[in-house]
Write a structure and sequence with these properties.
This protein is mainly α. It has helices at about 5-25, 30-40, 45-70, 75-95, 100-120, 140-155, 160-170, 175-200, 205-230, 235-260. The model has no long low-confidence stretch (mean pLDDT about 80).
């Protein structure tokens, strides 16, 4: 097997992991895509990894969204409010993120992941309110979380699903399966917004993005099926969400500290 062909298989495999995670928990696409691109595929420029992952994750999110829509787990009104409010924040965040050292950005990203994982794990026993949606009583809260998540999504070059899911739960108290499906609208919107900003600066590897999308389309089907099985079991999907975040964050912090030490 030639090295280039093996490298292509690595890229498709990495995309499959990303798609599986997006289908399973609605987030985690970028928290896997960025380290996979940097540490497994071997993308040397962190900004290229961030920009390319934003594009690949956004397109993979659209694939997962189509599947969730068929199952009726998407709260479209909440999705529209959250995504539209977050797009402006994503543009501002992306402009700021490109001005920060790439290794410092990855390390800060990992620390943020640990914080979000802890919040999710703390509330893992909360099942949410079936039928919860956006209304005049919580629209301001939903919009506020959307703007804040958009800024962080753009700054770190991520789709933001691992922030959007807890944001939707906190602002509406919807069950996690609905938050997962609904989050994919915002993941796609934030990711495409961030990708456009990075594209204008030349930070997109188009071939890598295409292979990640190919693998992601395959992985998202299995991820969504497992999510539906786990959603009915108290706290399991939320616990898995948090554990994935902790594992990837620990690896990124280790790599980031090692890189800054030399």
């Amino acid at each position: 097997m030639t090295a280039p062909f093996f490298h292509i298989l690595l890229e498709i495999f990495s995309g499959t992991l990303v798609g599986f995670t997006l289908g399973l928990i609605g987030g985690g696409g970028s928290i896997l895509a960025v380290p996979l691109m940097v540490y497994l595929v071997g993308v040397s420029n962190p900004h290229v990894a961030l920009g390319t992952s934003a594009l690949a994750v956004a397109l993979n999110a659209l694939v997962g969204l189509a599947q969730h829509a068929k199952q009726g787990t998407v709260k479209w009104r909440c999705a529209a409010i959250y995504a539209s409010c977050g797009i402006l924040g994503a543009f501002a965040g992306a402009a700021a993120g490109k001005a920060v050292n790439g290794q410092h950005l990855l390390l800060c990203f990992a620390i943020l992941m640990v914080i979000v994982g802890g919040i999710m794990l703390h509330g893992r026993r909360k099942t949410g309110t079936p039928g919860a949606s956006c209304n005049r009583h919580n629209i301001g809260k939903v919009a506020g979380f959307g703007i804040g998540t958009g800024i962080l999504s753009g700054f770190f070059g991520i789709g933001g699903g691992f922030l959007i899911v807890p944001g939707l739960i906190a602002s509406t108290n919807m069950p996690i399966l609905n938050a997962v499906g609904t989050s994919l609208v915002a993941v796609a919107a934030f990711g495409l917004t961030t990708a456009v900003s990075y594209m204008l600066s030349g930070y997109i590897d188009w071939q890598l993005a295409a292979l990640f999308v190919l693998g992601g389309a395959l992985g998202s089907v299995g991820g969504m099926r497992l999510a539906r099985r786990m959603a009915g079991k108290s706290g399991q999907l939320t616990t898995l969400f948090a554990c994935i975040i902790f594992m990837v964050a620990a690896y990124m912090i280790w790599q980031g500290v090692s890189a800054l030490s030399f």
